Amino acid sequence: MSQRGPGYDQRLARERETFAGQEEIHGNLPPSAHRWSNRHVRPKLEALGVPGLDELIVGQIAERAQGLSRDAVVLSLGSGNGDQELGWLRGLAGAGLDNVRLRLLELNPEMQARAEASAREQGVADRVELITADFNTWRADAEHDVVVGFQALHHVLDLEHLYGQIKGSLTGDGVLVVHDMIGRNGHRRWPEAHEVVDRIWATLPPELRRNALTGHVDEQFVDVDCAADGFEGIRAQDVLPVLLDFLHPSLFLPYGNVIDPFVDRIYGHNFDMDDPAHVALIDEIGVLDDSLLDLGLVTGTRLTALFHPSPQPLRVHGNRTPERSARDTRVVDPAGRVSFRPGGTNGERLVRGAGIVTGRLNGIAHDDWAAPSVEFPVLTTAPVDALDFRTYLPDDATEHGSVTVSVDGVPVAKADVGPGLTEQVLPVRLEAHRQVRLSFDADWSVTAGGDRRTLAYVLVGLGLLER
What pLDDT shows up at residue 272? Predict the structure, then answer.
């Protein structure tokens, strides 16, 4: 079933806008990220026989190209400007392998234009095919020996569709190379990891808590939902579990979690790798992160892996197996806490009445501000006759309008939202013990200058009223 619904077109437009002008999409990582990666990720890859990421990808392509009398066909998902992919071609040509054809699948036409220009400049345009399409609707029209998902899968809403197309197009000995994010949706912390980050945060001096987006020193760690208005991390937590339903791993290394905020682009640049104290702190958090992962107290937020159409012998690091890394987000923890098999949600404090929120509220920020598109699943506990929809906007708000309420993608009601506290009872009928997807789509938005969020209103609460 398609995952697309109301608000999809706005998210798609936001994705295009975000990346249209980006000529460097994998750079600008802070030195702290390279320090952590070299000490805590690279050695694990090397122990599994992988010198590095480029070597892994190029090696998988070369392994297949060497045994073929035809071109090896390589599909790169979310190829951006094509810089990495053209680098793979150069490396393969240097090894005497010219029978490789690249297919670059990318949503953004501006990025495709840059990739095409680079391919012409390098004299390999005849080896490169551009496919400008949306992951969520693209249909495979060729067989692929290698498919590469390099920081792309966490942008996909309809993972089931994409994985089906990949599986159906891979040759018998084909491979999907994955280097991606597999943590919580929107790249937020799972609660058990958030608790550890908060404890570390309380020990940091102000200069290490400066937010690169706002310029402010954050007294508390700000766990931004990156999926509020686009596709960044939209279904990150489903990337791995759904993938395991389609393909079989042969190399599997999950890593990273508690370390993430200290090596990302928001706070990571605060750490000076020429300062021994800062270096020691990054190393210590890296050791803690590894220990929590190895004990199974947290799950990895990043993954480097190989997947195949049929079962293969599996190489893993220690006990970091697929089974211990895939989180079942459908399970509700009766203790009310999200831990190793999470199901908790921030919905309990906002949604009341005859229903239980069974997943997280996509589009709702930590401070209850709502993006123009909000969506979450609900299981009704009794017949529902109406929704009590309560919102707030500052009294001086100049942007406001109406919010369309949809059930499983079908509009059923509309609320007018204006300044101040507003409470409206909307006629929405739902049968008892039914799992539905509720969505709320505003016809206006405001971009907050401080953290660049695109917002509409504050969701004060939502009541499911029994008949």
Answer: 98
- Looking at domain 19-340, which of 3.50.50.60, 3.40.50.150, 3.30.70.60, 1.10.1200.10 is its CATH number? 3.40.50.150
| C-alpha to C-alpha distances, 244 to 202, 247, 254, 305, nearest whole angstrom | 38, 5, 14, 12
- 214-227 mean pLDDT: 90
Spatial distance between the Cα atoms of 233 and 153, rounded to a whole number of angstroms: 9
**Confidence check: pLDDT of 335 > 50:** no
Distance CA 403, CA 95 (A): 58
Average pLDDT over residues 55-84: 96
Superfamily of domain 355-465 in the CATH hierarchy: Galactose-binding domain-like (2.60.120.260)
* Model pTM above 0.90: no
Residues of the chain with CATH 2.60.120.260: 355-465
Band of the pLDDT at 345, cuts 50, 70, 90? Answer: very low
- Segment among 7-16, 64-73, 339-348 with least mean pLDDT: 339-348
> Using an 8 Å Cβ cutoff, are 89 and 127 in contact?
yes
292-314 burial string, b = 16+ CB within 10 Å, else e? bbeeeebbbbbbbbbbbbeebee
The two structure tokens encoding residue 467: 């008949």
Phi, psi of 189 (to 5 degrees): -80, 140
> Which stretches of 26-108 are DSSP H helices?
31-40, 42-47, 53-65, 83-94
The one-letter amino acid code at 119 reads: A
The bridge status of strand 302-308 relative to strand 351-353 is unpaired
Cα 393 from chain centroid (whole Å): 29
